[in-house]
Amino acid sequence: MKVNEGRLWGRLQCLGRIGADERGGVTRPGFGSAHAEALAQVATWAREAGLETGRDDTGNLIAVLPGRDPDAPLIALGSHLDSVPNGGRFDGALGVVAAVEVLQTLREHDVRPRRGLAALGFADEEGNTFGIGVMSAQLWIGEIPPDRYPTIVDGEGRSLEAYLRAFDVPGVPLVARPALAAYLELHVEQGPVLDDAGASAAAVEAIVGISRTTVTFNGQANHAGTTPMALRRDALWGGAELALAVRDLANASGERAVATVGVFEVTPGATNVIPGRTRLRIELRSPDEDRLATLRDEVEALVTTVARRNGLTAATEPWHHAPAVPMHPALLRATQDALVTAGLPERTMPSWAGHDAKVMARRLPVGMLFVPSKGGLSHTPDEDTDASHCAAGAQALLHAALRLADEATP
Asked: What is the per-residue pLDDT for 409?
């Protein structure tokens, strides 16, 4: 039982033309006209495949292949239909189109598992309209209740409530959200690891946790020409030393962490003035919670040491922390075994970016599969993945979904 590679690829290309912009990319914000067109197109494919198709009251596509047990919660497959401005054709779209392909393949082969399967197309994952990432998944699990819809506004003051009231997709009826037993997501990696290794797919072991803080070093602004080097309290020296030390911490992690200093502000910012203040924004990511905690402690200790060594004072804001999300053991095993069943090597890796699965995991067992992004590129018109890799990922998704749909709830 094989997915149809040509059909999958053709649909991806068709979907990539919806919201195509003049810069060669895809601009398809959630709840906009291009999103409505994309939802209508995928719904058409789903209906033609004989699936029960509709959308919920927050703009998410739902297509269902019923199972033998009508009372059993469904196994959901999916991703998101929106894109970043001038983004690529595969981010999100692959997971939605592959979900429909899996359900259609099962129906064409007259395979009806015990549990039904649902293909989901989330409306707003990227968060560009309202500044809330993975918003539709939060709406799905009820973390953002309806009474908040009027208070969530875009840059022009238009509310989520207004967007939803205006969102209409003719021919795609409103339906209730089905009860779910688990969620599986196929996605492009959005990084270079699989492509660099020449691998076709991987099972995701965890979505990384993220810790962020701001560090400020205060020294003494002074004349750059008349102040001897030994008497300077140069805040930039502290910032530069910390930035390099943070890099070294990540390099020593054995590829289990990354660290970024994404903001580096120097005050007063004049060529002939010794910097009196430097502000850094630090981000740490790791799939291991214990490692993240250790890295935070090490950064805090470095701040103290660097400040003392350079005659500075320092302040660290409280850390913002989003914990790592390990995949459910049963779904991780299912995705690993699915790779082997699909004729691929068993391989696992972390996801270094967030996905709908990260939010769904707060209510359901989740699992993920990755396929390569050429050159590690994503969120760009140059985003690309081979048709064969898309098909391999969809084939593994089929095997994982079928296994879960015929087993007890994880």
From this structure: 62
Q: Is the pLDDT of residue 273 over 90?
A: yes
Which uninterrupted H or E stretch holds 37? helix 33-48
Query: Superfamily for 5-207+324-405?
Result: Zn peptidases (3.40.630.10)
pLDDT number for residue 410: 67
Amino acid identity, residue 377?
L
Which residues make Cβ contacts (< 8 Å) with residue 50, sequence separation at least 6?
104, 107
For residue range 128-139, list pLDDT tens digits in order: 999 999 999 999
Q: Any idea where the domains of the chain sit in the sequence?
A: 5-207+324-405, 209-322
Q: 157's torsion region: left (phi>0), alpha (psi -120 to 50) or beta?
A: left
- Let me know how long the chain is: 410
User: What is the residue whose two structure tokens read 């990696």?
Assistant: 189
- Alpha-carbon span 89 to 152, nearest angstrom: 28
- Helix and strand numbers (H, E) in the chain are 11, 16
Determine how many CB atoms are found less than 10 A away from the CB of residue 37: 17
Three-state secondary-structure class, residue 47: helix
Q: Does the pTM of the predicted model rise above 0.90?
A: yes
Model confidence at 407, pLDDT cuts 50, 70, 90, reads confident
> Could you check whether the bond before residue 268 is cis, i.e. omega within 30 degrees of 0?
yes
Q: Which residue, chain included where needed, has tokens 């396929």?
A: 371
| Contact residues for 248 (Cβ-Cβ < 8 A; gap 6+) | none
